[in-house]
Design goal:
Layout (H helix, E strand, L loop, with lengths): L37 H20 L17 H20 L10 H4 L24 H21 L2 H34 L27 E4 L2 E5 L17 E5 L2 E4 L5 H9 L11 H10 L7 E3 L5 E5 L2 E4 L11 H10 L7 H8 L36 E7 L25 E4 L16 E3 L8 E2 L3 E3 L3
Parallel strand pairs: 8-11
Antiparallel strand pairs: 1-4, 2-3, 4-12, 5-6, 6-7, 8-9, 9-10
Bound molecules: fe (ii) ion (FE2).
């Protein structure tokens, strides 16, 4: 977030925010509306916070403590860290009588903020059997009570300062809600019992597999187009989405839909993982060193077919479902094999401008990309939002005139602008109301545990 963002507020209509009690299943109604007053902000605060607790309520305590790899964190850590964020950036500096729940948490749940102080090693978050999940939930309750007090009683001048920090904290928590889902999936996928904590949102049976929809292309003119957004007092955005600036796009073509499991299966059957000419050099090195032969959660069967591990357990591979859990290297190799390329992030942003922010976003207890057949319609560009993040060929870097905010909160985005690639559009694990056409997600190119897939692009023939 930026210094400008501190004066922003989101379009969230608090009066329509659903009421959620911890332990209940959250509504999937998009977080709504225009925050105009303190009660509105408080309602939005509770709506987001309760969503995290409702996710945890669907799990067992043992599910929430394990860390399956350094990049993924236990659910319990996410629940605590998101509270640490409010404690660190809101309560300690702005609530005069606030008493920390536990002084040791300032280190245990600091993720990467060097200006705040030392951090418990990221790769060792799974070693924290204590605090227990109940202690972490009590920590959340403690922070929530203090936040209620702060929002209700702070002076008007302080309110003007902290309002956007609260919204930043809630968007931060929504990002961690997505990570809770992807980290949980990675952890459960290591278990030979193939746990199925959630429902299957769609039937994945061989009898139910529908034929692929034909690929078609939309031609976009390009030219001088605007990218990004100037941060605005009425609309929250992360600092890395701005400033708005011009870019030049050559005419280009975008595929009507995401690449499906069926599309990707053809790449595998054509020995795509064995053909070095299709791969970026670093990607080919990963293929060989990690012995990649299919997407992360596919499981090869003796008869040559594949199943896929999902949060609803092992399912038959649905050929119409968007392929996901791909690295950028696999996405680029597939595009090369298909005679196409990955889109640039400016191309996807230009194509989505003005489009409704609807799609297959997070649904409580049922998280999976939707089979394409269910979304088939006449729109020339489908699945622009939700289902799976779309890898781009654009490196994550600063837009012209970008400046990270001053202070520790400036570490949120700016310091990661190196060695990562941009993804666009959100996924089936992205909370409703969290997406924007300018939203920039970013991960190293070898990352596979996010819901990441691709849409093909082409240069318009000269
Ligand atoms: Fe964080």
């Amino acid at each position: 977030m930026s210094t400008q963002a501190r004066t922003n507020s989101p379009k969230v209509h608090a009066e329509t925010a659903p009421k959620i009690q911890p332990g209940s299943t959250p509504s999937i109604v998009p977080a709504p509306v225009v925050l105009t007053d303190r009660p509105g902000h408080l309602a939005y605060y509770h709506w987001v916070r309760a969503g995290s607790e409702a996710f945890a309520a669907m799990l067992e305590p043992e599910d929430m403590a394990i860390q399956s790899m350094p990049d993924a964190s236990p659910t319990k850590w996410h629940l605590a860290h998101t509270s640490w964020f409010f404690e660190t950036f809101l309560l300690l500096p702005h609530a005069p009588h606030y008493t920390p729940f536990d002084e040791s948490f300032s280190v245990l749940f600091n993720s990467y903020y060097e200006q705040i102080g030392p951090q418990w090693a990221r790769a060792q978050r799974g070693q924290l059997s204590r605090p227990t999940i109940n202690q972490v939930l009590n920590y959340r309750t403690h922070v929530n009570a203090a936040m209620e007090q702060l929002i209700a009683t702070t002076s008007q001048s302080t309110w003007e300062t902290i309002r956007i920090l609260i919204i930043l904290g809630l968007n931060h928590e929504q990002q961690h809600q997505e990570l809770m889902a992807t980290d949980l999936k990675h952890m459960l996928a290591q278990n030979p019992l193939s746990p199925a904590p959630f429902d299957a949102p769609f039937k994945h049976t061989p009898q139910n597999i529908s034929p692929l929809s034909p690929l078609s292309w939309s031609e976009l003119e390009g030219g001088i187009v605007s990218q990004g957004r100037d941060l605005h007092p009425e609309e929250f955005a992360f600092d890395n989405e701005g400033p708005c600036h011009d870019v030049v796009l050559q005419p280009y073509l975008l595929a009507n839909r995401l690449v499906t499991n069926g599309d990707y299966l053809a790449f595998i059957q054509d020995k795509g993982y064995g053909r070095s000419e299709l791969w970026l050099s670093d990607g080919w090195a990963d293929v060989r060193s990690h012995k990649w032969a299919h997407p992360l959660y596919w499981r090869a069967q003796e008869d040559g077919s594949y199943t896929e591990y999902t949060l609803a357990g092992v399912q038959a591979l649905d050929l119409s479902q968007p392929v996901t859990h791909l690295s950028a290297y696999e996405a680029a190799a597939y595009a090369q094999w298909a005679g196409a390329r990955l889109p640039r992030e400016a191309e996807l942003e230009h194509a989505t401008k003005g489009k409704a922010l609807t799609g297959n976003f997070y649904a409580p207890g049922a998280i999976a990309p939707h089979p394409h057949r269910a979304q088939r319609d006449e729109a020339p560009l489908q699945q622009l939002f939700g289902d799976c993040w779309e890898w781009t060929q654009s490196a994550y870097s600063a837009y012209p005139r970008y400046q990270a905010p001053r202070g520790a909160v400036g570490e949120y985005n700016g310091k990661f602008m190196c060695n990562q690639m941009v993804l666009r559009g959100g996924s089936c694990a992205t909370p409703h109301g969290h997406m924007r056409t300018t939203y920039r997600n970013f991960f190293p190119a070898g990352t596979r545990w996010q819901f990441s897939g691709l849409r093909l692009a082409l240069d318009t023939p000269a």
